[in-house]
């Protein structure tokens, strides 16, 4: 059965000013009702070019404990590399529908990879106003090029270049997270699979929505990953849940957004928090984002780092293979 893509519905809805019922969220989820208005949160910003490493470590660990999200600037990935990544991704989503369907996630596939619609486990069977593409970008042995767009031809090079550059940033982030809890520098990276850590690229494509007041893009969730490093486009839409409320986040040009995922929360024995977040959609503009989920390999066992477990701090989480991790952090809507 052919899956109807949000992009197709969006192009039809332009003339009808309405959206199908399955995209209409319950009232307590609708962003106009459930967002704190008049406040745009500035998610903590960390300058990775600071010569004072202690300062970076302090900022990263504080943000990971208090917020579960931060942004990094002067991260060392040239703007041009990011611009190309965005350009080829946008180009792909603007191809005729039949061309995109060539790399659709096969029906019944256990793997997440491919072009598709609606992945997020939904609370109530409703859908998010977003299409996506998933494919691994690192390590090379994990890559299935069948899910990489052939068109535009520059797609592969742009993604390979980004994957190559991202590694240094990711290695440093894991190091700062480790030092922030007085651990050996490699504790979090090794805990998440070391050099076998999988880099899973996702592109989110949120077409304009005639009723942004009623729909959401990606619904409230935490990421299952260890960490997620995300490139947004310039259209606002990311919201975080902080101190019991939903807030819009300020967009900072050229910053990368880092989400603490469930696996880092587990490894830190609860000291670092994975963050609830969601996205709103826009009436006129297309929003896009490029999260890369840093995930342990399926058979790698993840659990609290032994040094963080003692009599006063018993293990809060079981140690188990990443493939056996049962996602259980679905957001419970306030009534
Ligand atoms: O588009 C965004 O900014 C966030 C997307 C997201 O949270 C996800 O894909 O897991
Ligand atoms: Fe997410």
From TrEMBL:
Entry-linked InterPro entries: DIOX_N, IPNS-like_FE2OG_OXY, IPNS-like_sf, Oxoglu/Fe-dep_dioxygenase_dom, Plant_2OG-oxidoreductases
GO biological process: coumarin biosynthetic process; flavonoid biosynthetic process; pigment biosynthetic process; response to molecule of fungal origin
Keyword annotations from UniProtKB, A to Z: Dioxygenase, Flavonoid biosynthesis, Iron, Metal-binding, Oxidoreductase, Vitamin C
GO terms for MF: 2-oxoglutarate-dependent dioxygenase activity; L-ascorbic acid binding; metal ion binding
Source taxon at top rank: Eukaryota
Obligatory cofactor(s): L-ascorbate; Fe cation
Pfam families named among the record's database cross-references: 2OG-FeII_Oxy, DIOX_N
Fe2OG dioxygenase domain ranges (all copies): 196-296
Family (UniProt): Belongs to the iron/ascorbate-dependent oxidoreductase family.
Protein name: Flavonol synthase
Gene name as annotated: EgFLS
């Amino acid at each position: 059965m052919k899956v109807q893509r949000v992009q197709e519905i969006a192009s039809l809805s332009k003339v009808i000013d309405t959206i199908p019922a399955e995209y209409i969220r319950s009232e307590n989820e609708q962003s106009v009702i459930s967002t704190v208005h008049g406040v745009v949160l500035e998610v903590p910003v960390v300058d990775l070019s600071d010569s004072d490493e202690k300062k970076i470590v302090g900022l990263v660990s504080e943000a990971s404990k208090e917020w579960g999200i931060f942004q990094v600037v002067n991260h060392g990935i040239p703007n041009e590399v990011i611009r190309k990544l965005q350009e080829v991704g946008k180009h792909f989503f603007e191809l005729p529908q039949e061309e995109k369907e060539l790399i659709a996630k096969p029906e019944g596939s256990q793997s997440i990879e491919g072009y598709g619609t609606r992945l997020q486990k939904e609370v109530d069977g409703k859908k998010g106003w977003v299409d996506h593409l998933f494919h691994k970008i690192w390590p090379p042995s994990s890559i299935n090029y069948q899910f990489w767009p052939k068109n535009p031809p520059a797609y592969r090079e742009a993604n390979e270049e980004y994957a190559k550059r991202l590694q240094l940033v990711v290695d440093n982030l894991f190091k700062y997270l480790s030092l922030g809890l007085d651990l050996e520098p490699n504790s979090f990276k090794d805990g998440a699979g070391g050099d076998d850590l999988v880099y899973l690229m996702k592109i989110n494509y949120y077409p304009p929505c005639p009723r942004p007041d009623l729909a959401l893009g990606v619904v409230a969730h935490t990421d299952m990953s260890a960490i997620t490093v995300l490139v947004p486009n310039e259209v606002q839409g990311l919201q975080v849940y902080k101190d019991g409320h939903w807030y819009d986040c300020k967009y900072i040009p050229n910053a990368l957004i880092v989400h603490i995922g469930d696996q880092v929360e587990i490894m830190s024995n609860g000291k670092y928090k994975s963050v609830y977040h969601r996205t709103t959609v826009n009436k006129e503009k297309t929003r896009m984002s490029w999260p890369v989920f840093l995930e342990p390999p399926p058979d790698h066992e993840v659990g609290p780092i032994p040094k963080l477990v003692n009599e006063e701090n018993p293990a809060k989480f079981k140690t188990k293979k990443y493939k056996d991790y049962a996602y259980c952090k679905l957001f419970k809507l306030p009534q």
